[in-house]
Amino acid sequence: MTGKATKQIIEQLKDSSHPPIVLLDGAWGIGKTYLIDNELRPLIESAPQEFGDYHYISVFGIQNVTEFQDQIVSLYISNQKEGSKYLDGLTSLSGKLARMCGADTSEAGVIQGVISGTTGFLRQKAIQNMKDVTLVVDDLERLTDEKLIADIMGTCLRFAENNKIKIIAVANVAALKDKNKVEKSFSDVIKLTRTTEELLTIINQIYNDVLEPAVEKVIFQTINQAQSFNVDINNLRVLQRAINRIIKLMKRVGDIEEIDQRRSAEMLTQHILLLTLYCYSNKLNWEDFVLILSNTDKWRTHQLTAAIARKKDQPQVEKLSEEELRQKALFDQLSSLLNGLPFIDVLAEYCFTNLVPELSDEEFIKRFQLPRPSNPIDIFKSHTFYSFTTEDEFELGIEQLEELLFTMNNVNWSDWIICCDTYLFMYERGYFEDANIPKLTNKLETRVLEDGVIDLDTVNNSRLNFRDYSSNQIRTASFEQAINKIYQRSKSKHEASITESFLKDWRKTIHKPQCHIENQPFFHSIDHGILAEAIAQWTVMEIAEFVGFIRRRYLIVNNPEKDKLELPAIKQLSKQLDLKRKHIPGRLQKGVFKELIVELNNAITTIEVRQKSDSLN
């Protein structure tokens, strides 16, 4: 494949009406180096009578223009047909001259050493004689010294004008400050862009015979899917990063015998590629991504409230700040992007760290939600049924699906709701004769709310918030109410477990990633009397550290929900601790109790002032 930019560069270098010096401009990761190595270099080397010898140099790390000239001269001398004569002339110099010039006494060190050590005759003589060369000068934007960049561009221009050396400079012009110097130094600036088709062709060339056909097909489909959601796909390095992670993880998955290898590969490929592109496009690091996930309940509640308000023709209840609007937009994009896909936190972490988790095969299957081939129900769990290959397998899958929905207890939340959605979808689309859809819907709503049916511990880790339902019935207000009741039950159980954990070891609890409570409201869910009693059992050092935790906790100004919920709780806690302090005999414990009470009262004042200020605005 010869792209448009390559053809432009070749034509510019052949044109004798101007100095043969061009700049290949392109954003980071667009594939400039790939173009040089795989398109330009083969064309140049195939026509030595036109372009002479091909040389490449990266200026990254070069300290001054003399060093730049020395490296070019060294490349030129070492590759000349008459280079042996030139080298003979140099090596015939006495060892004294070589040592004076800083060279090694061995022949290998003479070229660079003599040239580097000679400020006049040898360098200038070589520069004057240089001809029949095409030189690629890469990484200009990686230099921080603007004067050095200008000097190198000036040197390249003189090579092109005086020696007729063909120069191809490579840089991201957007990162260069002196745009006027760029305009004056180059005969033309050629912008490298990539179409989706070009990117896919390059990916195919890079990973030829490395990827399984099914995986390669999913990669191409996913890139097109990401583009339709306004995700930036035009970075070859980011695409390669994602694909390299896919290949690495599939080596581990390939060792697991108890899974459907094809569907696992397709699912993981789609996840890794989408998540990598999404985070790159939005410039998100791991902490940013976790923050988006931690506010899932908030955005779901906001969406539901807004929907109810629209139905009742009422104004939206809560007005979001600019930062909250940005976070919600990121959440909405991720939710749309991963429509219909199971979402796994551990996979997102792998995309950022490139560290394959050290898990057993069974743990790997569970945490990555890998489908097992021996069980048709897994096809329904992956929210599809078109992949059944026989009617018998489909009927067996229906039996297992109905067993999961109507008989089994302690079921994974996402498994149940995805299978429920698929079941309703099939009823609506005519896969069951004489279907009474309202009766079925009511039966499923009743079933999901029965105690013990759903494993509430799986609800907080579900992927439901990142998919849209396909059946009509599951979108109804009554089904939404049932789903919200499950969320509330899970939340209550989660808060209860946090309370128990916090009372045992508050420091360990706040840093648990699954708790997300360091900046989230939770004190309101803990009985203040029980908490005060627990604090009385803590060591003095634990209480002192807790004082610092309270001091930091209420400096955050962008969480009015936390302020509102926790203000009554910390007021009561302060009073309880004050009462308990009166019965403490020791001065050390009595003193640290006083510090905590003071800090709680300071927090109360901070919140009240903040709330008053917000009400005035």
Walk me through what this model shows:
It is a single chain. The chain is mostly helical. The protein has helices spanning 4-14, 32-45, 48-51, 65-79, 83-91, 95-100, 107-117, 121-129, 146-163, 179-185, 196-206, 213-228, 236-253, 261-281, 286-294, 296-311, 322-337, 345-353, 361-367, 377-381, 391-406, 413-428, 437-448, 477-504, 506-510, 528-537, 540-553, 560-581, 587-616, and strands at 21-25, 53-58, 133-138, 166-171, 188-191. The protein has a five-stranded parallel beta sheet with strand order 2-3-4-1-5, sandwiched between helices. The longest helix is centred in the C-terminal third of the chain and has 30 residues, at 587-616. The protein is globular and about 95 Å long. The model is unreliable at 81-109 (pLDDT under 50).
Summarize the structure.
62% of the residues lie in helices and 4% in strands. It has 617 residues and is mostly helical. The chain starts with a helix and ends with a helix.
Count every beta strand, where a strand is a DSSP E run of 2 or more residues.
Answer: 5
Spatial separation of the terminal alpha carbons: 61 Å
Number of helices: 29
List unreliable stretches of 5+ residues: 81-109
Strand portion, in percent?
A: under 5%
Helix content: 55-70%
Radius of gyration: 34 Å
Record the SSE blueprint.
Elements: H1 4-14, E1 21-25, H2 32-45, H3 48-51, E2 53-58, H4 65-79, H5 83-91, H6 95-100, H7 107-117, H8 121-129, E3 133-138, H9 146-163, E4 166-171, H10 179-185, E5 188-191, H11 196-206, H12 213-228, H13 236-253, H14 261-281, H15 286-294, H16 296-311, H17 322-337, H18 345-353, H19 361-367, H20 377-381, H21 391-406, H22 413-428, H23 437-448, H24 477-504, H25 506-510, H26 528-537, H27 540-553, H28 560-581, H29 587-616
Parallel strand pairs: 1-4, 1-5, 2-3, 3-4
Helix pairs in contact: 4-5, 4-7, 12-14, 13-14, 14-18, 21-22, 22-23, 23-24, 26-28, 27-29, 28-29
